Amino acid sequence: MTDQRRPSTPVSSWFWGPYAPLGLTVAVLTCLIDQANKWWMINVLDLPNRGEVPVLPFLNLKFTLNTGISYSLLDMPTYEWQLTLAAIAVIASLALWTWLAQSATNKVMAVSLGLIIGGAIGNGIDRVVLQGVADFYRLHAFGYSWYIFNIADVAIVAGVAGLLYDLYLTSRKDAAKSL
Questions:
Q1: Interval 135-162: pLDDT, tens
Q2: Residue 46 appears among annotated catalytic residues
Q3: Gap between the Cα atoms of 40 and 71, Å rounded
Q4: Would residue 174 show up in a list of annotated catalytic residues for this protein?
């Protein structure tokens, strides 16, 4: 039986691979869920005008606009800086997409990269539209408060955790083969 698949061109191998459909689906869904949640928090719940809203003994909703990067590092509230950070998010997402298309070897890696890409694009959209990243969720317990975050942030952290998990599994398999 002959293989009737179309031969891949150099361009298609750069931007599309066997796990690209899964990664793209996860990235698009992540970005859409993040943006829908942000729209609802801002426009329906009107969180910017409500102040802090207790939800659970360890969770409050509070609107903040982060004009820096993680933990408000490199904080600069100018629109030009927000566009620069949005451009960096797009460049990073393209690099991650290339990694997914060329090197993804399993579903865990594809989903993980899709989560990171979708989260980065979601936060990048905020920077262009809102001039900063909208964050809402504040976890706190025993007098300690963690940073305020959004769904895109959770997706990025989950994606990194998934990549670490995949690396761990791969290294264990390689170690077992070498015995």
A1: 999 999 998 998 899 999 999 999 999 9
A2: no
A3: 24
A4: no
Is the pTM higher than 0.90? The answer reads no
* Active-site residue, from 34, 126, 153, 166: 153
Counting as low any pLDDT under 50, the low residues of the chain are 1-7
Measured CA to CA, the distance from residue 120 to residue 90 in angstroms comes to 8
Q: C-alpha 143: how far from its chain's center? A: 29
Q: Beta strand pairing status for 53-56 and 133-141? A: unpaired
Strands laid side by side in the 53-56 sheet? 53-56, 59-66, 133-141, 144-149
- Contact call for residues 121 and 97 (beta carbons, < 8 A): no
In terms of phi and psi (left: phi > 0; alpha: psi -120 to 50; beta: otherwise), the region of 56 is: beta
Q: Report yes or no: 67 and 83 within 8 Å, Cβ to Cβ.
A: no
Instruction: Give me the catalytic one of 46, 135, 166, 174.
Output: 135
